[in-house]
Design goal:
The structure is a homodimer of 217-residue chains.
Chain A (H helix, E strand, L loop, with lengths): L13 H17 L4 E2 L1 H8 L3 H9 L5 E2 L3 E3 H11 L6 E6 L3 H7 L2 H5 L2 E8 L8 E2 L2 E2 L1 E2 L3 H7 L4 E4 L3 H13 L4 E4 L12 E4 L2 H19 L1
Parallel strand pairs in A: 4-5, 4-9, 5-8, 9-10, 10-11
Antiparallel strand pairs in A: 1-3, 2-3, 6-7
Chain lengths: 217, 217
């Protein structure tokens, strides 16, 4: 069954939800819960059971009606789908506050993302230590990516520097970018770019707050 | 027409997309582009034109076939929908690396989010300066939220402290929370909680990288 998952069929909006399901399932596993229904999952996630069943349907039929899903099996399938059955080498480019916060973020390592390097352009920052890593010069990024088979670059430099560092990472052979810089990176063939804008999260909240204000009228 | 938008009908997955559209439209406005088609928008966003038209349809018919959407009008409607036609008072709880990075994030202010306070529990951090704000004691959070009509709290404390600080903020009357702590906050009536997990962004990338590996097989 594992090989029958056609990832191209999974819609883009579904992928972040799969990550959320996986986190809840890990929690259930730690609590020694062997099985879970879509209804229970929905309650734990404040989500919709029908949506969950639909999302799971992309992987074939692994729920048994009335019995629920096997937690361990589901974790295995979701992990495989999300590419977490392998290790990914990751670098952070930009050792400012956000870069350092992300470097110390424990959740990454737990999911198989291995932070192998951190880079900055400032001579005041290059050579300093962030946890076990020494900050390297951005000029060495392409070479480092090439030599260390780095898959993913997290970009946390200021907006005006982001396009250049992305270019350097791509030169070195990077295949995936998570860009926190508030600027749109140009598309590059064979490179998947995920643009993260932290103000989006605030907008989702203001949307709902103004919705409540509306419904009180 | 503004009053005819029924926000309850806008699906949850649509809201972050609206925020993305708005950013691109702001860029078009700065470049003095008066009109844009869903196809042009789709190209700029690496998105699907049909999806964009569907998302816009929740606001009624504001596109004219073959002519496109009026940029200024669209910005106005999207902003209103996202609650950006008013100012929101925001506090950050947790003045560590991530809290400080977010406090300095310019995008917030531009969209009408006004950072009015930053809090921490460490006596080494309380009283220090983050930009124009002085870090206050977490114990004062509820009172501050009440007295300053704070709408939204951004939580960037460690996992074990998050539930308590959320409680304090809610006691003070907070209505919206963006939680970066890797722990699920309990639901509270009348409070909208947005859980942000930064490792989700990496998983979206690993999903696509492993998909490409699959399609090469």
């Amino acid at each position: 069954m594992a090989n029958s998952i056609d990832k191209a069929k999974v819609p883009q909006a579904t992928v972040p939800r799969l990550a959320r399901y996986l986190r809840v399932l890990h929690k259930l596993e730690r609590d020694n819960v062997p099985k879970v229904s879509s209804k229970e999952l929905a309650e734990r996630l404040d989500a919709n059971a029908a949506q969950i069943r639909k999302d799971f349907s992309y992987f074939g039929e692994f729920g048994v009606r009335g019995v629920g899903y096997e937690v361990k099996y589901l974790i295995g399938e979701l992990s495989k789908c999300l590419g977490l059955d392998q290790e990914w080498n990751v670098v952070i480019v930009g050792a400012g506050k956000l870069g350092q916060a992300l470097a110390r973020y424990r959740g990454f390592r737990e999911e198989g993302f291995r932070l192998v390097g951190i880079f900055d352009s400032s001579r005041y920052v290059i050579g300093t230590q962030v946890d076990e890593l020494v900050v390297q010069a951005e000029l060495q990024l392409a070479e480092f990516v090439r030599e260390n088979k780095v898959h993913i670059a997290i970009i946390t430099v200021p907006a005006q520097a982001a396009v250049l560092v992305a270019q350097r990472a791509i030169e070195g052979g990077i295949k995936g970018i998570v860009n926190f810089a508030p600027v749109r990176l140009p598309a590059a063939p064979g490179v998947f770019i995920r643009q993260v804008d932290l103000s989006t999260e605030l907008m989702v909240v203001s949307f709902y707050l103004s919705q409540n204000a509306q419904s009180r009228v």
